[in-house]
Amino acid sequence: QLSATDMTKIVENSGYKTPALESVGKPLVKDFDGPAGFNSHTMSPDHPGDWTSYPSETVIGQTWSKDLAYRMGVSMASEGKATGLQGWYAPTVNMHRSNYNGRNAETYSEDPILNGYMAAKVVLGAKANGLHCFVKHFALSELGDNPQNVHIWLTEQNLREIYLKPFEIAVKDGGANTIMSSFNEVG
What we know:
Blueprint: H1 4-12, E1 17-18, E2 29-33, H2 57-63, H3 66-82, E3 87-89, H4 112-128, E4 132-138, E5 151-152, H5 156-163, H6 165-172, E6 178-181, E7 185-186
Parallel strand pairs: 2-3, 3-4, 4-6, 5-7
Antiparallel strand pairs: 1-2
């Protein structure tokens, strides 16, 4: 239903938002980043004190509390609603593959099942109050901050049982309907 101009507009102008597209009745949607809250903007001089800084996903994962994860999602949605945000670049469900991964604090654990169920509960809580979550980074983005020109080779069994499993759980059990991609190449 989108024209080539609209498709170009939505791809080129979608950092921390997706633009309004009158041709299909899509409103402007504002999205912020940060699995520990809207933390890329929490300390912003433009928004002092507008958002809460939560513990890292690793700390949340160590509780094994799906109720706590759900309540975090509800809280995030309340903050989003109060400050005009509709989307959240979180939760992260990549694996802790190495101690040297710069994004380990953004994900729950080295276990795909724990990652998936914690993320599913966060998504359910957020969706209950109207905030959509970008489950990230699809897929195999365990090597650091936005790794580019990285080629990941693995078996289909490893891909399905370890790396795709948390995304599957977040979609099937949490109802996630938005996924953030990664920059790596998979073989």
